[in-house]
Write a structure and sequence with these properties.
Keywords: Membrane, Transmembrane, Transmembrane helix. InterPro entries: Alkaline_pH_Ca-Antiporter, NaCa_Exmemb. It is found in: Membrane. There is one protein chain. This protein is an all-alpha fold and 361 residues long. It has a single domain, classed as A middle domain of Talin 1 (Up-down Bundle), CATH 1.20.1420. It is built from twelve helices and no strands. Helix 2 packs antiparallel against helix 7. The longest helix is centred in the middle third of the chain and has 35 residues. It starts with 6 loop residues before the first helix and ends with a helix.
């Protein structure tokens, strides 16, 4: 007997249909509202399908699937906007990637720790795996976003073509090395851990889905993510109008869109933390930040040769200060392999500072 379709099977398809009818058109208030509701539904559906796929393939592959899928579609969105308005979007890649780093390391980790430490609990995670992931994110951020602000071969916070090539190749190799470490050489470093610190391989709560169910969920996950990014683009004029009406800088639009795109990973990480699998939350957060840099920068380094668009990657002093503070606090959180509510509040405070300073630079 064939199982009846559920809400998370139907909503991605409805969101995709709405995207097809609304993309590139001027929408009225009613259409904008409908698209916003379907965007929220696509986010929730993406989380559901990501968890089904993750249950089938196990950790850390499940976290990797969601992180890479979101990042690939995010790169497509950046390229679309750069082609549409090259001069206006010169800093779009920088703002989007930096927002992804701050949202994942500040917001997603902070929310996950807050959920995991409920009831005076002190959750555990694998410091070896999470520490290696954090070190990779810090290295990638420095190579691609901080170095352009301190190099002197080209005026302004930009790379020369040779420097951009070096940064792109380095980012791609580092990301590939991490994926190999996470999935092959030291997979046990990225598995959820028990109270005694031993890795947990598998899910004790339910039998894994069938292969057919997992493939269907993978396809609907990709459809959901396309709908999320596409509808975020559709909603961007309304977001821009709201940002202008509130007197906020135009760069804040990128933060809002990044928040929308990363909603599936945020909800998935919070759900994992609620189930006592904080390592899965760490995999999602750090893997998303890493994929956002390790895949985006190499892709854009190739793309700028064909679309002839300026690419400003260097961060400003305020952003560099926030990045340094974030990595120091994240290191002190991860090194012990366990966390308290205090660590959660510090990460959330840094995330709130990022959002506030994006609103009021």
């Amino acid at each position: 007997m064939t199982a009846r379709p559920r809400w998370y099977h139907v909503l991605p398809l409805l969101a995709l249909v709405a995207l097809a009818f609304s993309y590139g058109r001027d929408l009225g208030a009613a259409a904008v509202t409908v698209c916003a509701l379907l965007l929220a539904g696509a986010v929730l559906a993406a989380v559901q399908h990501a968890e089904i796929v993750a249950h089938k393939v196990g950790e850390p592959f499940g976290s990797l699937v969601l992180a890479v899928a979101v990042t690939v579609i995010e790169v497509s969105l950046i390229l679309t906007l750069m082609i549409a308005g090259p001069e206006k979007s010169a800093t779009l890649a920088r703002d989007t990637v930096f927002a992804a780093v701050m949202i994942t390391l500040g917001g997603i980790i902070g929310i996950s720790l807050f959920v995991a430490t409920r009831g005076a609990r002190i959750p555990r995670f694998n410091a070896e795996g999470s520490g290696g992931a954090l070190a990779t994110v810090a290295t990638l951020t420095t190579l691609t976003l901080i170095f352009p602000s301190v190099t002197t071969s080209a005026p302004g916070p930009v790379f020369t073509p040779g420097q951009l090539t070096f940064a792109a190749v380095s980012a791609l190799l580092l990301y590939a090395a991490f994926v190999s470490t996470q999935t092959v050489r030291h997979r046990d470093f990225f598995l959820p851990v028990a109270k005694d610190g031993s890795p947990i391989d598998g899910d004790d709560h339910a039998d894994p889905p069938t292969t057919k169910t997992a493939w269907i969920s993978l396809g609907l996950l990709l459809i959901s993510l396309v709908a999320v990014v596409g509808l975020a683009k559709v909603e961007s004029p309304a977001i821009e109008s709201g940002v202008r009406a509130a007197g906020l800088p135009h760069s804040f639009v990128g933060v809002v869109i990044a928040l929308l795109v990363l909603l599936p990973e945020t909800i998935a990480a919070a759900n994992a933390a609620r189930r006592g699998r904080l390592q899965t939350s760490m995999n999602l957060a750090l893997g998303s930040a890493m994929a956002s840099i390790g895949l985006t920068i190499p892709t854009l380094a190739i793309a700028v040769h064909f679309i002839d668009a300026p690419l400003v990657l260097g961060l400003g002093p305020t952003q560099i200060t926030l990045a340094v503070l974030t990595f120091i606090v994240a290191t002190l959180t991860i090194v012990p392999g366990r966390a308290t509510r205090l660590q959660a509040m510090m990460h959330l405070a840094i995330f709130a500072s990022f959002v506030f300073l994006a609103m009021s630079p």
